[in-house]
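Review form for a predicted model. The reviewer records the input and the model, then writes brief findings.
Reviewer: anonymous (R2)
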Amino acid sequence: MKELMISALNALGLAWWVEIVTDTPRCTYYFGPFTNKNEAEVAQSGYIEDLEKEGAIGITVVVKRCKPINLTIFEEWVGELTAPAARTPFLNGQM
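Model under review:
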């Protein structure tokens, strides 16, 4: 029953997620979904502990309602996608 409620909340973008951003490596992680903010806040310490054990540095945590598309986002990927060599003449206004 609880799984059905979490799925419905998540589909509507009303589920709670733990968003963790790390400086090293430059990543954003999403953990969830949770039915309420309190559940997410209780769970966040375990995620932080795991990332610290893996050597993550500069950890920032936010508990919020959202609907993440990707659960892990590496900044290196973003940089590769927006690098000048990846742009086409059409995208930068030249034909």
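Findings: The first helix runs from residue 2 to 11.
Further findings: Confidence is low (pLDDT under 50) at residues 82-95.
Recommendation: see findings above.
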